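Form 12-C: Joint structure prediction
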Amino acid sequence: MTFIAKPKLHHPKLPTNSLGLTRRDYEGAVSTLCAGCGHDSISAAIVQSCFELDLPPHRIAKLSGIGCSSKTPTYFLGAAHGFNSVHGRMPSVLTGANLANRDLIYLGVSGDGDSASIGLGQFAHSVRRGVNMVYIVENNGVYGLTKGQFSATSDKGSKSKKGVVNTDSTIDLVAMALQLGATFVARSFSGDKDQLVPLISAALMHKGAAFIDCISPCVAFNNHLGSTKSFDFVREHNAAVNALDFMSDHETITASYPPGTVETVEQHDGSSIRLRKLAATYDPHDRVAAMNYLAERHFAGEIVTGLLYVEHESEDLHGHLGTIATPLNQLGERELCPGAEALERLNAGLR
Amino acid sequence: MPHALERINDFVVKFANVNGSGSASSNQLFAKAVLRMGIPVVSRNIFPSNIQGLPTWFEVRISEAGHLGCRGGTDLMVAMNPQTWDKDIASIEPGGYLFYDSTKPLPPEKFGKDINVIGVPLTAISNQRYSDPRQRQLFKNIIYVGALAALLDIDMKVVETLIGEQFKGKDKLIAPNLEALHLGYDYARENFACPLGIRLRHSDKVGNRISIDGNSAAGLGAVYGGATVCAWYPITPSTSLAEAFQRYCKRYRQEPETGQNRYAIIQAEDELASIGMVVGAAWNGARAFTATSGPGISLMTEFIGLAYFAEIPAVIFNVQRGGPSTGMPTRTQQADILACAYASHGDTKHVLLFPEDPKECFDFGALSFDLADRLQTPIFVMLDLEIGMNDRLCEPFTWDDERRLDRGKVMTAEELEAGKNFGRYLDVDGDGIPYRTYPGTHPTRGSFFTRGSTRDRYAKYSEEGPVYQDNMERLLLKFETAKKLVPAPVLVKAAKPTRLGAIYFGSTSPAMSEALEHLADENIVLDTLRVRGFPFSDEVMDFIAEHERVFVVEQNRDGQLRMLLVNEGGIDPAKLVRILHYDGTPITARFISREIAEDLAGPSIVPVREAV
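Section 2 - Result
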């Protein structure tokens, strides 16, 4: 971790996006996480996605719970409002915020302790309500901030740094998100920027509950032999299902992806995502198949990464509720208060 | 023959029913008919935490004098429930009346002494006329309303009009209901000397008052107060508040052109999520609230602490019930005062409002959103089951169309652009309240990080002792500001000078007013102060200082308001006498006056009763 303040000056020739902003304008404070922490790579991926998508940083609301992962919103999008809420309760705060102003982009950042243990209920209900959000779990299978206890995503049989073996079954949040009706479900790995950045970009453009489980090894407590979330273990057991290339209206973001078949998924806002299938038979539009494939690979000891499921014409919570297009926080007396005359009529009915 | 009570427009009728039998609407028809005759009336549902098969009572107090508190005792018992028969008979006042279904004969020992028995074969009448079992049950209820109309001299035209209103739109149901009504009416007229000694007479004492339950009024207040987000979890007795909000939103909050909603209501997965959504919505600039009861408050306390410390507006309607734990979920208490005043870990204090009736539920319901935005903190509106779930006669609702929503200190994009200094936790004008910005306001200025951990005046994380203390002291200053913003207490001076005072709040109000009359009859006079908000304003402490002995009347075991007074005002506890009613039934005037009179009759007190 570092205590050096970030210099405000930057090179005049740094590339800018269509808003005239540089990548630096999407950064936050200097991270206080451990050097080499996977979470910092995820923050960097978020910065890159938002920059490439030309998103105005202040139109994003970043919310988190409690824990190492939940500290990260301080380290990206400094111009955005952030909310470091209560342990396991980010989803409800995000849901409320989203109800208040449907025009902002909501980015929820959580950890495996925050979402799979104390906040499992709120994770589940925010997903099943279809809140329009990007929900990223920075999953390291360990409680970092309290120094190395198992979390609910720790694999059964894995060993802690102190040598304790986990005997509890694991919770796979990806499997749960699929079952709960999330309309965008993906998994990635913090060390795989080529895969992660397009996934985050696609999730940011998706309308509805977009969930990304991002395996992010803990360099302090869960990156040792015996851990199933260490860098080495994940790299060896990673079975990528597809590569994703995001293409916005403004400019196609090209990346060095391996060749393969390409499928363009039309999003409701007109933008599109291109799916590059690595597994020839994989179809990201079939929820049941995704659930089966995930389970099958899980029992084969593999971690599936990539976009597992996406729904084209998804409706979000505002759609379910039939709320007006104007953000609720912009309404004034005229729209909200029925007035004295209506009250007088109401009084008459109560006599 | 036992003597028979003779009273006009001043008696208590109690209906003993089995829940799920369809009696509620016919009982309400009865109460509404009395009201339409211009006679003040208050009704109470006394119900179990159950859907079908358990005892339930509906108590109607008719009072020309306008006493709306629970009186105690019953003058006419409509005993429709064999399960509670003995207890119901025992509660009838000497000289009172028993009305029952005489289809099955009962042995004489089942009827007690000194009561007047009126048996109407309701089941037989109903079964003779109707064949469908459901109709037999429902019309039996209407038949007894008809019989009571004859016995109590209720204006049949009024009842007929009400039936017409009730079934408006389902017009084919009107005639059968009218027929059932007359079956009962005619039977009573033919078989008894109508009316009884207790009877009704048209009056004009209702005036332009309205009758509504406090939960509906509070839900309506939230609509008028500009609430757009409601997140709640069902819990008795608060459920009907969120449902009322929904009902009124459907009526008043649909965009005419599109039919889309200017509100969002979420039935959350639990109370933690409810308050979380409220906090999130309010952080983002919407007016948001939740409605709950004691157990919900317990679950919400972590978030309440966050909202206090991070200074986020939130409105919490707490419709109190009997605690602790599940306690008495369908009975009334004022037992969450301390749990709300000091909710959450660490040093916290919260603003509480205490409405006395549906009118104040509406007023405070709307006001609470202004206070929450102005003070940037949780505001508790403390109803209870007694006000929340019972129809209560109150002054009509009023609204000033010139009134504007007070959104408090919110810095705009223009102000930020002009270079106005923004520190999220910076007090710029000495009232302890900082400016906030809504997310998304300005591209480069005014963003900040909201957190439950310590930070400096510019919202920057800091664990420095002085920084922490500076913030905590500013929060105290803000609480001082709140004193001037909560509704002022209502002082009622006795007709002559007295050294005695009484402090009360919330649903105790009507019983207290009536108790003062009882006490005056015994030449005991008290000044009273009805507390309407916490933090206590200086007037509350002045009132205590100005009286030698102050009774604190409340509906809980431990004297929670008294504790709050002692704690916040540095009051000598010996000066504050507890008058505590907490068995789950509403406090009565009889109870208050008896307790106060007994206390004053005690040996330790210098003369308080003046010579007659």
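Section 3 - Comments
The longest strand of chain B covers residues 92-101. Residues 465-485 of chain B form the longest helix (21 residues).
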